[in-house]
Amino acid sequence: SMAAQSENTKPETSQEGSTSTEAKKKIVSYRVGTYNVKNLFDRITDFLPEYMDPLGEADTDAKPRKEINTLARRINKSLLDTLALQEIESYKTLMDFKNAHLFTSQSTSKRNYPSKSGVFSMPSNDNRGIDLGVLSTRRFPIGKITSHRFKKTNEQKKIFSRDCLQVEILFDEG
User: Fold this and answer.
1) Which of 125, 141, 136, 154 is nearest to 94 (CA)?
2) CB under 8 Å to 28, separation ≥6 — which residues?
3) What whole-number distance in Å separates Cα of residue 82 and Cα of residue 2?
C-alpha cells in the first residue's frame, strides 16, 4: 500500500481586508492512498463460463475472515481521506466491507465513507470480474470519474488489463 499527504494553504482575510501570511493560514490536510486488497470476494463462489476460464483456474472464493479483519485494521489505521482499491469483486462487496469493517469506532467515525458521495466501483477488463473501487470521506466527495478501460494500442490491444480510473475529488468546506 502507498499513502501520500499534501497540505494546501489558503490565506484568510482579516477584518481590515488584508491577507495575513503568518498565523492566519488555513491548513487543509488531505491523505490519499491505494491498496491492492487481493481478491476481496463475497461468500458466493462464481462459476465462470468456459471461454472466460478455459482451464478452470479462476479463484473467486471468499477472502478468509482473518485476512478481512487485518485488511480493515490497516485501512482504518491509515486514516486516509481517499482510498483507491484494486481487486474487489463488486460494488456490493465493497459496500458490505465498508459497512461491516471500516471506521465503526467512535474515535474515527468522522472519517466514514458516505454511501452516496464516497463509494464507487466499476467493472474492469479482468475475466474473473475483479473490479476497481474508490472510497472517499464526506469532506472530500468523489466528483467526475473517467474510465480508460477500453483504451487500445495502435495494434488494437487493450492497454490496461483491468482499468485506469481518473477520479476527481472535490473539497467540501462545510
Assistant:
1) 136
2) 7, 8, 9, 10, 171
3) 12
Assess contact for 75 and 113: CB atoms under 8 A: no
Q: What phi and psi, each to the nearest 5 degrees, are found at residue 168?
A: -90, 130
pLDDT in tens, 133-151: 999 988 899 999 999 989 9
Considering the entire predicted model, what is its pTM? 0.71
> Which triple of cell numbers denotes residue 169?
475529488
* Residue tagged 487543509 (cell numbers): 28
Asked if 62 contacts 42 with a C-beta cutoff of 8 angstroms, the reply is yes
> How does pLDDT run across 55-86, given as a tens digit for each residue?
555 556 678 889 999 999 999 888 899 999 99
